[in-house]
Design a protein that fits this description.
The complex is a heterodimer of chains A (133) and B (194).
Chain A: E1 18-23, E2 38-45, E3 53-58, E4 64-68, E5 73-78, H1 80-83, E6 88-97, E7 103-113, E8 120-132
Chain B: E1 3-9, E2 13-15, E3 20-24, E4 42-46, E5 64-67, E6 70-73, E7 76-79, E8 90-110, E9 122-128, E10 137-141, E11 146-147, E12 155-156, E13 160-176, E14 180-182, E15 186-193
Antiparallel strand pairs in B: 1-2, 1-8, 3-4, 5-6, 6-7, 8-12, 8-13, 8-15, 9-10, 9-13, 10-11
The chains are: A mainly beta (133), B mainly beta (194).
Chain lengths: 133, 194
């Protein structure tokens, strides 16, 4: 069952660590058993004519861990480099290929990534010398 | 944790560590003064002001200001655009455990106490190698009240994309404006990263 419009519109800043918890249900609304399943996530531009994929994650390539297969729970993890250079509103899809090779887009929605302005600062110095004559 | 490490090039990149960058009037003697108004003929690592030479058998690269677009290194005058990384005066290595991008980086000379105050008694130019620059930037002129970490009085370094390691290759040339030891003279770098 595809659950649409699971929008994430707050608390997501570019360049941050971020986790998104996902709970997948089957067509009857029951928790879906994710044992042996492959989950993928894609973040893409909200432009029908140019749906460029910005970021992909999966249980195979990394970035997604099925934390409780029997209860359909997974966690998608974002590290700073994933979103360092992007901000704005994007669409996302999460896909599941289950143990019976049944593939389904289980949820979609918008993610709003806020631009991060608070950057870290660092400085250093070394001594120099000369003598004039 | 983010850290800076400063290097000079002898036969390999050598950590400046606790030493001092010494500009002198001789390629092999760090104690030779520079005639007022003329540019450095030697660059060395000294243990103090100037202390003893820590360069080893091969002295640090020396880059000498010739004009706004040229310098002398390897005993010949060349356009700054021809400079290789290993011909720069300094390599400043910035690293962080996580992958970070750098921005608003700048290199400056100052008096060793207040980062916005110019170094005392010297004039200096700097150049960032490898970023398409072609001219020197004046970073200190004590007589003109230029120097320190101030806009238009420092070398703006190029932004670098995300990575755990960042290198800034910088050539520096300096000359005394007056007779005597110039001890109120440090180099600084500052940047933001995310």
């Amino acid at each position: 069952m595809t659950v649409e419009d699971q929008n994430i519109v707050a608390d997501f800043y570019s360049g941050n660590h971020k986790t998104i918890q996902v709970t997948v249900r089957d067509g009857s609304g029951n928790l879906k058993d994710l044992t042996g399943a492959i989950m993928t996530f894609a973040l893409f531009k909200d432009d029908p004519r140019n749906p460029t994929v910005i970021l992909r994650k999966s249980t195979v390539a990394g970035g997604i861990v099925i934390t409780s297969p029997a209860t359909g729970e997974a966690v998608i993890t974002f590290v700073p480099k994933d979103t360092r250079n992007i901000y704005g509103t994007y669409r996302y899809q999460i896909n599941v290929l289950d143990d019976n090779d049944v593939e389904e887009t289980v949820t979609t929605g918008f993610i709003k990534i806020f631009r991060g302005f608070a950057v870290r600062y660092n400085e250093d110095a070394i001594p120099a010398f000369m003598s004039g004559q | 944790m983010a850290t800076f490490t400063w290097y000079v090039y002898t036969t390999t990149w050598t950590d400046v560590s606790t030493n001092t960058i010494v500009f002198s009037g001789d390629a092999s003697n760090l104690a030779t003064p520079i005639t007022v108004g003329t540019w450095n003929s030697g660059t060395h690592l000294g243990t103090g002001d100037p202390g003893t030479d820590q360069c080893g058998a091969t002295h640090a690269n020396n880059v000498k200001y010739i004009n706004s677009t040229q310098a002398e290194w390897d005993v010949s005058t060349e356009d700054l655009t021809a400079m290789l990384a290993t011909e720069a005066t300094l390599r400043i290595f910035f690293t962080d455990a996580s992958s970070v991008a750098t921005s608003s980086a700048r290199f400056y000379a100052y008096d060793g106490t207040t980062t916005t105050a110019e170094a005392v008694g010297i004039e200096a130019y700097a150049f960032e190698q490898g970023v398409g620059a072609s001219t020197w930037t004046q970073i200190n002129d004590d007589s003109g009240n230029i120097g320190g970490d101030n806009t238009s009085e420092r070398l703006t370094l190029s932004d670098q994309t995300a990575g755990t390691e960042h290198n800034f290759y910088i050539a520096v040339s300096a000359r005394p404006e007056t007779v005597g030891s110039k001890t109120q003279f440090d180099f600084g770098i500052a940047l933001t990263y995310s």
